[in-house]
Amino acid sequence: GDHHRALHLFVAPETVMPELGPDDLYFGPGVHETGVIFLRDNQTVYLDAGAVVYGGFIAAGADNVTITGTGILDGSREKRTETVRHILALPWGEDDNTFAAMTDEELRAYVEGPENVAAGNIRFYKCTNCTVEHITCRDSSCWSIKAGGCENMLFDDVKEIGMWRYNSDGIDLINSRNCIIRNTFLRNFDDCVVLKGMHGWGHRSLENILVENCVIWCDWGRGLEIGAETNATEYRNILFSNCDVIHGTWLHLDVQHHNDAYIHDVVFDDIRCEYTRHQQPLKMQDSDDQTYEEATVGFEQPGLLGAFYFDMGLFGAPHNGEKMDRIRFTNIQVLSDEEVPMPTCRFTGLSEACHIEDVTIANLTRNGVRLTDAGEANLEYNEFVSGVTLK
Length: 391
Hints:
30-stranded mixed β-sheet; globular; 391 residues
């Protein structure tokens, strides 16, 4: 099929506009050129049907923020330059507690001041009890939706399309906990759902995270992922459930470990992963004016699932003898054209200390046939991986 000129149709839910107060924001049908809007405690933003808002929303140190409605939030006006940072993080060697230790006022001043970071579509920093629902996000300059150092966040029935710039991730949860992403369609030109630990957020653990009932279309990057940045004390109690990965490039389901977190009790369950004879090879852009020309059809297929240590010195703290364990892939379906090779299931430990233990792959099927043999499942792992069960 033609992935570049696909028509995306979404059935908008019937929503009731909440009663809006004097500090709330309403955008009615029509075009609104807003630029970046900074949100405060207890604000509601409503994008009504037919509204197209050209801008982005940032909330820093805010509680009880809601962005809702069935309108469109478009980030295409935001220029991505060398002088504007597209993520709020610090390089290794600077204080890891910088943003976590800031007061709400200090964080707001930092984000809104001369050290500006890109808005993307939506940014939450050190926020609690916030919701984004029903809206469509389009053409982000970088990561579309990000929550850094947040708690009790809900992303429900969000749609993301038109993400054509590199690093236009879908939803990135950064050193956050007690978060839900559900009923969402993400088509992105980088990772779609990503759980990251970024240096500068105090090594806060990522825990109690649920991603469910989502449709994932990854044009460049990975579908459902932990990493690559893993600057955190722990990742735990994380569930990806009942999702469809309908297109991918590098890898559909994975844990990519670059830093020093202890990663455990992670489950990918009831995930359907599609593969096609029309898979497009990965292409890198050499200049801003280079267009994405349609590539020759080939069989360079994305991997299916796995967990990996990388020792590249990127993103922050080096590995420190941490391990990964109790990683589960259950009820994973491969749905593919018959001539497409079985995609890889691969696990790569780094050392005796940085080891992967207790991995279960249960009820893995390809086109309805259960795979219980490592060869059929294209399962590989190195000497620093133990306790792998395929059943």
